[in-house]
Amino acid sequence: MKTGILKTIQNFIKKHQLESLKDVALFIIITLVIHFLWRYWANQLHYVPINDFMSDAQAWMANGVYRQSVWFVQHILGIELSLVRESNSMYFSNESYMYINRSCSGLKQIMQFVILMMIFPGPWKKKLWFIPLGIFIIHLTNLFRIIGLSVVLETIPEYWQFSHDYIFRPLFYVVIFFMWVWWVDKISKRNKAKNKKAAR
């Protein structure tokens, strides 16, 4: 019975050329499951059984993001800052401020990407270089987010909350989505095509 239903669904997908929509649906489901499981693990279970490791990892990454974004804001953009390194805080000339806490580290988004790529079908040889590249791109995205929010605080501080919640936070998921599209269309499907030719 179940196999008959699955075959019907598969035939419908092939007939109407909905393979891409199937992949997008799978991406959305996996991403949402990882997101809510992570939130439960973080907020309810406090990262048990590796809570000390996770706390240290987030603090280390937040410190790195803070140092790198401060350097860019000061030396490349020329924005004057007063710094409190103990709390990863930046104070701007217009009396606005921002601090980089552990949730700003980008670790959650990196782990979401890594888990997504490990679950999603594809050749493992290519995942070995694609996953580290994705981690690097997500880190750059996080730096861009912090630097962008710094510019907002310096120029239009009244829009900081809106920018934080509705522009820069979703940016992570846009970047992850486009990396996934790159993986599915350019890497994974190309590998399937090569395997089909080899099988002939």
Number of strands: 3
- Beta-strand proportion: 5-15%
Number of helices: 6
Outline, from the CA principal axes? elongated
What is the end-to-end distance? 33 Å
**What fraction, in percent, of the residue positions are helical?**
over 70%
Count of separate structural domains:
1
Mean pLDDT: 86
Give the spatial strand order of the biggest sheet: 1-2-3
- How does the helix and strand content classify structurally? mainly alpha
The helix-strand sequence is: HHHEEEHHH
Main β sheet profile: 3 strands, antiparallel
**Radius of gyration of CA atoms, rounded to a whole number:** 21 Å
Give unreliable regions as ranges. none
Can you describe this structure in just a few lines?
By secondary structure, the chain is mainly α. The chain has one domain. The protein has helices spanning 2-15, 19-43, 51-76, 107-119, 124-155, 160-199, and strands at 81-84, 89-92, 97-99.
Describe this structure in words.
With 200 residues, this protein is mainly alpha-helical. It has one domain (18-199). It is built from six helices and three strands. The protein has a three-stranded antiparallel beta sheet. Helix 3 packs across helix 5, helix 4 packs antiparallel against helix 5 and helix 5 packs antiparallel against helix 6. The longest helix has 40 residues, at 160-199. It is elongated and about 65 Å long. The chain starts with a helix and ends with a helix.
Tag the structure with descriptive keywords.
single chain; 200 residues; mainly alpha; 3-stranded antiparallel β-sheet; 3 strands; elongated
